[in-house]
C-alpha cells in the first residue's frame, strides 16, 4: 500500500514518474475554444460546370492509371485531357 500512496502523492502534486526515472509534468487541458460566429456566406460563384452535362465512361483500372499519369505529366486535369480527345474525335469525324 505504501507504493499506492506514493503514486497518489505524485499524481496529486502534478508530477508523474516514468520508468526511466524522468519526471514529467501532469498534462494540462487546453481551454475550450469559443464557437466563432459564422462568416457571412459569400455569393455562390458560377462554376465551370454550370450549364453543362455530365458524361461518364468505365475503363480498366490500369487504363485509368495511365490516363491520370499522362495528364499529370502534361500538368492537366484528366477532364481536360478527355475534352481534348473528344474535341479531336469530333473534328476528325465532322461532328
Q: Report the mean per-residue pLDDT as an integer.
A: 79
What order do the helices and strands follow? Answer: HEEHH
Percent range of helical residues? 40-55%
Query: What characterizes the major β-sheet?
Result: 2 strands, antiparallel
Q: Tell me how many strands there are.
A: 2
Taking pLDDT < 50 over at least 5 consecutive residues as the criterion, the unreliable ranges are none
Cα-atom Rg, whole angstroms? Answer: 31 Å
Give the CA-based shape: elongated
Number of helices: 3
Tell me the distance between the termini: 90 Å
Strand residue percentage? 5-15%
Strand order of the largest sheet: 1-2
Structural class: mainly alpha
Q: Which labels suit this protein?
A:
95 residues, mainly alpha, two-stranded antiparallel ribbon, 3 helices, 42% helix
Report on this model:
This protein is mainly α. Helix content is 42%, strand content 6%. It has three helices and two strands. It has a two-stranded antiparallel sheet. A hairpin with a 5-residue loop joins strand 1 (15-17) and strand 2.
Itemize the secondary structure elements and their pairings.
Blueprint: H1 2-13, E1 15-17, E2 23-25, H2 61-73, H3 78-92
Give a quick rundown of the structure:
The protein has 95 residues and is mostly helical.
Amino acid at each position: 500500500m505504501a507504493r499506492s500512496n506514493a503514486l497518489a502523492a505524485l499524481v496529486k502534486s502534478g508530477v508523474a514518474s516514468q520508468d526511466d526515472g524522468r519526471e514529467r509534468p501532469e498534462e494540462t487541458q487546453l481551454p475550450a475554444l469559443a464557437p466563432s460566429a459564422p462568416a457571412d456566406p459569400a455569393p455562390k460563384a458560377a462554376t465551370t460546370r454550370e450549364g453543362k452535362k455530365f458524361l461518364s465512361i468505365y475503363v480498366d483500372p490500369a487504363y485509368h492509371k495511365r490516363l491520370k499519369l499522362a495528364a499529370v505529366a502534361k500538368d492537366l486535369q484528366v477532364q481536360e485531357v478527355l475534352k481534348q480527345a473528344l474535341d479531336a474525335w469530333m473534328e476528325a469525324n465532322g461532328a
